[in-house]
Design goal:
mainly alpha, 16 helices
Length: about 325
């Protein structure tokens, strides 16, 4: 059972019973808007609170030493990307993750290797992919996903954009800070909870308006762009199919678990696998709601570098899977 099914039921009641909307396009759009706004809002509160706790206890030196203690070039990027594969975070958790890693002194490029891999290579691609596309395709997708994350992280690191990070989001309290404020004594649980709540609430209130705006764009696309338009324009094997699929995935917000059924339906209607995967990966890594959230932690220069590096990687993956026959 979907844990968010009560939210969907509430959205159905609001649209059908309370508002009485009969136009199917507006009904679909508003239903999507209500459901995703509540769902992402709840996720933000929970994730930001959990990440506030993680940052509080984060063993800064240990994490930094593990990622920095490489014996060969690129090991820190690879380790960060592989760490991302076992952490089922979606794009709505970008800011708290970004804050925790950058605040720990981990290089910017390594941080982005993690952030890209986390939604791109996850529980869906590891455990659901085999039942739909087979083991060979699963290994190829996950391997390429990690490679894209590593190369994108390296490219971003080369640009030296550390000053593009918003310093306001790096001012959070660690366990040591709280102990010092408490006169060197053990911090009571009630005070810890207050610190976590303050930290989580600051990030949530700063980024939620951007979530609402991003979901609004996705709702309009969801309600007014016919499914047939996507199928008809993506089913061709022309060169522009992969870039178009990448662009069409941007306004949506979803994790790969919820997008995989769409990918399966698209491939069943003749859409090339690489094109369908480009749509999925763009949705889970470069969605406009996620980018608007991430924008609060960095300037446009760094955000553009992230989009460019990740977008190129997604398009290359799409072309690769369109050419490979397994």
């Amino acid at each position: 059972m979907d844990i968010f099914s009560p939210v969907q039921s509430l959205a159905d009641v609001i649209v059908n019973n309370w508002l009485g909307i009969t136009n199917k396009y507006w009904a679909n759009a508003i239903n999507f808007f209500i459901y995703d706004t509540i769902k992402i809002g709840l996720l933000l509160v929970v994730i930001n609170y959990l990440m506030a706790m993680v940052r509080y206890y984060l063993p800064v030196e240990k994490v930094r030493d593990i990622l920095a203690g490489r014996k060969w070039y690129g090991a820190d990027y690879l380790l960060a990307a592989m760490l991302g594969t076992i952490t089922p975070f979606c794009s709505c958790s970008s800011i708290p993750l970004f804050v925790g890693f950058v605040g720990a002194g981990i290089p910017l490029g390594v941080t982005f290797a993690f952030l890209i891999a986390s939604p791109l290579v996850n529980e869906a691609s590891l455990f659901i992919f085999p039942s739909i596309f087979g083991l060979k395709m699963t290994f190829l997708y996950n391997g390429l996903g990690i490679l894209v994350s590593v190369l994108a992280g390296m490219a971003i690191q080369k640009l030296k954009l550390e000053k593009s990070v918003n310093p306001a989001f790096l001012q959070y309290k660690t366990r040591q800070d709280a102990i010092e404020e408490n006169g060197g004594n053990k911090v009571p649980l009630a005070k810890k909870i207050a610190v976590w709540r303050q930290d989580a609430w600051y990030i949530t209130k700063e980024i939620f308006p951007y979530v609402v705006f991003g979901v609004g764009i996705g709702a309009l696309i969801h309600g007014f762009v016919p499914k047939e338009f996507v199928e008809n324009n993506l089913s061709a094997a022309d060169w522009w199919g992969v870039p178009l699929a990448t662009i069409l995935g941007l306004p949506l917000y979803a994790n790969s678990v919820s997008v995989l059924p769409i990918v399966e339906a698209l491939t069943g209607k003749g859409v090339p696998l690489g094109t369908a995967l480009a749509f999925m990966t763009a949705t889970v890594t470069l969605s406009i709601p996620g980018l608007l959230i991430l924008k609060k932690a960095m300037d446009w220069k760094l955000l553009s570098a992230f989009v460019a590096a990740t977008g190129v990687g997604i398009i290359i993956m799409g072309y690769f899977f369109n050419l490979v026959k397994i």
